[in-house]
Every structure is written in C-alpha cells, then in structure tokens.
Design goal:
Length: 655
C-alpha cells in the first residue's frame, strides 16, 4: 500500500510494551481513527540493546513493516532519553549529579549527563546501529532525537565532567581570569578568582553571583544542544530522512541554536482550555525557524496525567487543539499517546484508545479531525501561512537572565511577554513571527523587542540601525538594552545604546510593584503602565505618552524618534494591551482581520490558492467578517460577509 503523505495525524506508539501479535488490532483501529503516521522507539533502548553490544531490531522491523503495509509511515525516535539498567549499573559515572553532589539513580528518564564521554559513546553506538538499520527505509519518514531535552533539576548536571567543561568554556570565552573578573565585577563580596579552576558549581543553597548563574545555565543549554547535534551528525551521515528533536514550550534551550544542524522543527505542548492561545505563541516561534512546515510531535487528546489523571477537556477541545498547529504552519499533529499505558509512571495519561484497546470518548472527534485533514489536504499542502509583517523577539539568554535576576518581584519573562505583547496582538488578529535575536529583520516592517535585556546577542545591535534607517519600526522596551552579555549593568548609562538612538535621557527608574503610575497619551486619554517605569526626557524625540502623576510626572513614558526612513518607539513602561495594539497597527500600515478576540484567523497563500483557517480558542461562538466570498473546505458551504464560528469550531476557507 502507498504510504500516506501530509497533513499527518498520528500518535506515539509503544509496541515494546505489548505483545507483538496485538499490532494488527492496533493498526485496524488506527485506520478507523484516520491515523496516518506513528512515532515509535524513543523510550525503547532496553528492547533494542538488552545487553551491552547485543542488538535486537527484529521487533522494530516488524512494527515498521506492518505499519507501512497499512500505509502508515513511522517517525523513529532515538532512545537516549532512557538508558537501560545495565548501562547505569556498569557505568555509574554517566548519571546526572545534582548541585548537592548526589547522583541520580536508574528508574526515571533524562537521568544521564549530556557531557559524559562514556554516555555519549553509548548513545553514538545505538544511534549508529539504528541509522544503519533504518536510515534508508522509505517507511521511516523522519527521526526524532532523544525526547524533550531539558537541563535536569534546577542547575542541570553538576558532575565533575560538566564542572570541568564549564570552567574550560569560560577560559575559551574570556582568555584570562582577570578578564572574567573584570566582566563579572567579582571584587564585590571578595568573589574574585585567581584561576578558572576556582569557578564553583552554583549550588542552590548559596546566593551566587547572577553572572555565574546565567553563564552556568547557558552552558547547560549549550551542552544539550551539542548532545543533540552529535546524534544529528550520525544520522545525516548514515540516513536520508529529515532529523529533528521534540522541543518543549520553554526557553531553557535555545531553539535557534538547536535547529542550526537539524532539518525539521518538532514541538510538544499540553495546553489546557484556559491557556490554549499560549500554544499559538510557540507555533509562531516554530514556523519561522526553518521557514518550513514543522511537526507538532505531542499533544493530548483529552486529559494529561502521570499516575493521576488531570485536566478534563470539554467536547470540541481536541478538534481545535489538533487544528491549531496545522493552521499555524505545521504539517503533522501527533497525540500522546495512541494506546494508554497499562503500567508505569504515566499509566493515567489520556490517549486515543484505552489500555484494553477500546476507543476513548474522544475517538469520534479524532476521526472528525482526520476527515478534515483529508478534505483540506490540497489546500494545506499547497499553501503556507502568509508572512507576517510583525516580529516579536524571544530570547533564550533573556530567559536565563531574568530567571536569576527578575528585577521586579513576581516578574516572569514568558508571562510578561505573553500578557503584555503576544496576547493583545493575537486577539487583534495581528499575525506575528516570534523570532530569536539571531534571526533576520529584513522580512518585517515592525519588530517588537520588550524585555530584551542584551542587544549584543547574535550581533543584533549592529543590525538594528541599518534596518531602522531603511524604514523599519522598532518598538523597544521596557527592560530592553539594560544588560551586557555578562548579565551586568552598563556603567555609562541605563541603556547600552537606546538613549543615543532614541534622543532621550533616562532621568529616573522606578520598579513597578506594588505602585503603578498613570500615562497621559497624546489624545489626552489616561491609562496605567506596569512592570517598570523609566522617566524619559526627550531631546530629539516626541513624547507619545507622559506620566500623569507620581515622581515621574511630566517625564515621558513612551517616545517616538525618527531614524532615517524608520522610527523607534521606546517604552519606558509596559502600556495596556490596547495601546500596544494601536502602536503596532499604526506602524504596520495595514488592517487586521475583523473578528472577535476569541478567534484565531490565519491567512494562507501559495500555489494551492488563498484563504483563511479560522478556529475558536475559547469554547465560545465568534464572529468573522470575510473580505471576500469563500468556501469552507470542511463542509463545502459557501460563505460571505459576516459569519459565525461555533465554539471550538474550525473553518478552512478558500477564496
């Protein structure tokens, strides 16, 4: 039978946990549900290599063969997230060590050190053998490296190997210990070092220097990226299929750096009805990384859970949740998991069928999603998300910097980015690419950089001015350009460059909690700021909003400065979402779709035509005004003018 192509709807499948004679029954139900891809293998190291150097892939060949005979291709995972017991027993030095000096034990997952040369060698062996077995199998359409790579515990691995490698990384970065002392300002509290070997593990029971903490956690991120890239090199050498690794919704690993040596972005999320829109942020981040369709490799059909089920999802949620990544540029959506586990640490997690092989209550909704994917396949495969004119910066360095110096009580980088910028734009139907500081600015007319403390990331500072002078609009702040890459303040001014570029002097700075101060806008309306308050004195800038009360009264809170053909909007505080939307819309010079805030409206275009994918994210009816008549490919109905979208409804509208 011919293998299915995209769009893919599938699930994670664990045949290593079940009798092999059960596969045919599973496949029959997969076909009934409309599944056309399965992910296999990412936790099965002990089945593939039951004893050191003894490999068994016969069972895996059988699974891939039977799936392929049914037209279902396989995404194959490398099993390095779950080292077998013999490996931990024979080589205990591979185990992660906590900041308190305790080794992890066998029995969980993600418990091996990414820098351990012994572990890396065993990973290379199993990945090499897998690539030799399956690297040219047409029934395998891609590889997933490991599973949900992430630093272990609050400080990652703190074993002697990691400690020594960190010290060497700092030696390579600074050259001399005197240069490190100068960059970090270590003479405070007598922290100056005489040798790189004195750099400590930043234990959680010590109030460590934030420069050390930030450097250590960025090193941890780099270690896992290097670990993944080592496997990618093997797979690229021995296999022909695209390679990725399933990332989680966190900035703890730098997405941009990770994917420099990978082929396809893979993403896992488990959002609830209360925060489904938050998943859109991460998909708007995944899409521009490779400028190619990404794979949503994990999400739930219903509830999540380990040994306790939690988070029931109402009828229709699975439909909207399954279409969300497809609307935003994915070509695959996979559930975790196909058949519920009958044992182990996640036996209460929701699935497509139960552990006794019976369809869950959500089965019909999954089947409906599959029918929709097939009905809209030509349009989905022949179009891409129309390139947004607006970009929003998201930084892995900022993630770790704010983690260790949040600056304001209760400040959480991701929460403020979502609530202050992304969500207001999402609800106004303003399409956004979420980009790393390393990404090109050229495709965008508006770039928003709130809470971007270090402009020297990836040479961003040098690239901003030419882009501005060529006509771009940059919305910067609050808390932007306030730190060096060593997580220290600038000594010459509150900002690195923004006073000079914006033509202002920052007279005073006041934290935003618990007090708030009002802003008076040019139209005389008054609204509040939040998070932080910089009092700006304009010299070559226009005051867009001034403080109406408090110690900053009369100083500007928002300014606008012409820069060549472009403009710089400097935010000394975080305005309300309404003002953020108006600034972006005014600068972008375009109109967003006319729709209620609960809807997601995604323009698509390409050889397959033009149109919109529309879905409700809030389990409530919404209204949309179509710019021209369109046909819903899921129902065949023709629509024009103002139309209603049902709660958790999905429409694929082709003009």
């Amino acid at each position: 039978m011919e293998l299915s192509g995209p769009p893919y709807l599938g699930a994670a499948y664990y045949p290593e946990d079940w009798p092999l004679d059960q596969i045919d029954d599973d496949i029959a139900l997969m076909l009934e549900a409309g599944m056309n891809v399965m992910r296999v293998g990412e936790f099965a190291w002990s089945r593939m290599e039951p004893r050191e150097g003894e490999y068994d892939f016969e069972w895996l060949h059988l699974v891939i063969e039977k799936l392929g005979q049914a037209g279902i291709p396989t995404i194959l995972g490398t099993p390095t997230c779950t080292p077998p017991a013999w490996l931990a027993e024979r080589y205990p030095e591979i185990l992660v060590m906590s900041d308190q000096g305790r080794r992890a034990g066998h029995g969980g997952r993600r418990h091996a050190c990414p820098n351990s040369p012994v572990y890396r060698e065993h990973c290379a062996r199993i990945v090499t053998r897998m690539a030799e077995e399956f690297g040219h199998d047409p029934r395998v359409i891609g590889w997933q490296i490991d599973n949900e790579l992430f630093p272990a515990g609050p400080r990652g691995c703190c074993c002697p190997v990691c400690h020594a490698k960190f010290q060497e990384a700092m030696r390579e970065r600074f050259g001399t210990i005197e240069a490190l002392n100068e960059a970090w300002g270590t003479h405070l509290w007598s922290q100056a070092y005489q040798d790189f070997r004195q750099l400590p593990i930043p234990r959680t029971d010590v109030r460590h220097h934030p420069s050390l903490l930030t450097a250590w956690m960025c090193f941890q991120s780099d270690s896992y990226i290097e670990f993944a890239h080592a496997q990618a090199e093997i797979l690229h050498r021995l296999a022909t299929q695209p390679v990725g690794t399933d990332m989680m919704p966190t900035g703890a690993l730098n997405y941009h750096q990770m994917h420099r040596k990978l082929d396809v972005v893979q993403f896992n999320h488990y959002n609830s009805p209360e925060n489904l829109g938050q998943a859109a942020f991460w998909m708007d981040l995944c899409r521009p990384i490779k400028e190619a369709p990404f794979w949503n490799t994990e999400t739930s059909t219903c509830w999540n859970g380990g040994v306790t089920a939690n988070g029931y999802k109402p009828s229709g949620f699975c439909r909207a949740n399954s279409w969300l990544p497809i609307a935003l540029g994915a070509e695959a959506n996979l559930y975790w998991l196909w058949r519920a586990h009958w044992s182990g640490q996640e036996l209460m997690h929701g699935s497509v069928i139960s552990s006794c092989g019976r369809p869950l209550h959500i089965f019909g909704e999954v089947r409906e999603v599959a029918r929709g994917f097939r009905a809209a396949a030509d349009f989905l495969n022949g179009t891409r998300v129309a390139r947004p004119k607006v970009a929003l910066h998201f930084s892995g360095f900022a993630w770790w910097l704010f983690e260790h110096q949040p600056m304001v009580n209760g400040f959480r980088y991701l929460d403020q980015l979502l609530d202050g910028f992304y969500r207001p734009l999402l609800q106004a139907q303003i399409g956004v690419d979420v980009i790393d500081p390393a990404a090109s600015l050229e495709p965008y007319t508006v770039v928003c950089s709130p809470f971007l403390p270090a402009l020297d990331e990836a040479g961003l500072r040098e690239r901003l001015l030419p882009w501005l002078e060529a006509g771009g609009t940059w919305i910067a702040g609050p808390l932007t350009d306030i730190r060096t890459l060593d997580a220290t303040k600038y000594r010459h001014a509150p900002y690195g460059s923004l006073e000079e570029w914006a033509g202002v002097t920052c007279r005073y700075q006041i934290p935003g909690e618990p007090q708030s101060f009002a802003l008076r806008w040019r139209d005389r309306s008054i609204s509040g700021g939040s998070v932080w308050y910089d009092g700006l004195e304009p010299h070559h800038a226009e005051a867009v909003a001034t403080y109406a009360d408090g110690p900053l009264k009369g100083l500007a809170g928002v300014t606008c400065t012409p820069v060549g053909k472009g403009q710089l909007l400097l935010l000394g505080t975080l305005p309300r979402g309404e003002e953020v939307r108006e600034m972006v819309l005014g600068a972008g010079g375009y109109r967003a779709a006319e729709a209620t805030p609960n809807l997601l409206v995604v323009p698509r275009e390409g050889p397959g035509g033009r149109g919109l994918i529309v879905l409700d994210l809030g389990n409530q009816a919404g209204m949309l005004t179509l710019p021209q008549p369109a046909t819903d490919l899921l129902t065949g109905r023709r629509h024009e003018g103002r139309i209603e979208v049902a709660p958790y409804g999905v429409m694929v509208l082709r003009y």
